[in-house]
Amino acid sequence: xxxxxxxxxxxxxxxxxxxxxxTVDGEAGKVRMFQESKEGEKFVSMVALKNNVTADGSLFxxxxxAKPVVNDLNRHINSGDxxxxxxxxSPALQARLPMLADFARTDEQFTYYGEKTE
Amino acid sequence: xxxxxxxIGGVPxxxxxxxxxxxxxxxxxxxxxxxxxxxxxxxxxxxxxxNAGYPGNWWGIVTDAEGIPYVxxxxxxxxxxxWPGYYLSTTAYLVxxxxxFDARRYVDSENVCFAVVPxxxxxxxxxxxxxxxxxxxxxxxxxxxxxxxxxxxxxxxLGEASMAAAEYFNLSPSPKTGGSSDxxxxxxxxxxxxxxxxxxxx
Lengths: 118, 202
Known about the structure:
heterodimer; A: mainly beta; 7-stranded antiparallel beta sheet; 1 helix; B: mainly beta; Barwin-like endoglucanases; 2 domains; 7-stranded mixed beta sheet; two-stranded parallel sheet; 2 helices; 5% helix
């Protein structure tokens, strides 16, 4: 079998202990929205992607930027050279998004910055 | 012999035959445990309040029975409440002998050198990390710091230390703008189950 795509994982931290991890492997993909604390995981929500779209029609558009966007110098929250834009985010999806730290907030709705991790 | 215990963002965390666990990472600044790290509007805390959590999920400050952040009071005395008007910031390591509303219960990041273990590394082996012997090494200079592990950080991030540890390595200790983003410069080695010089295991 010839594998045309290599899986890639992107991490977008929305606060110190919470964020969105997107893994794309060809047409398939998955989104992991998580929130931890010092005691461990508070919640994890998984959503499947097909061609970057969830079953309820939310598009996860990921793009590499020419230079990183830095909204937090220390922890790099909502910062990095990859941009995630969630287009047509369903109410169910919106309810599961971790809280975006106010100091790292931008004016762009459902748009986050992060890094390719694998 | 080293074995890979787990990977965080593709970076391996190793476990050696002597039981030590080690990794390379950044040096993000953890201000927790410092009694003026966080505060309500009108104060001048060192860190952003959002780094201590949010209503319903405060991981870095003391709350009362209703989940409302506790404010240090003048009447509580200098030892118990050194920064009246500020919130009381917590570490995962809890110093015994003091109640939850006493600043001495937490390890003060501004005055104590300590390192932070990611939450998923903490639960990956049985021996205890809190209070364990830890060595941070600057691979650029070869300088090392022996200290303790006194706090827990996010499972997605490698490399975090107290403000005092950053100062030891001549880095800016600011939890807003300081530290080092070099992901290959800082080596952290912890010996879970082996007590540090300053803190008993817990």
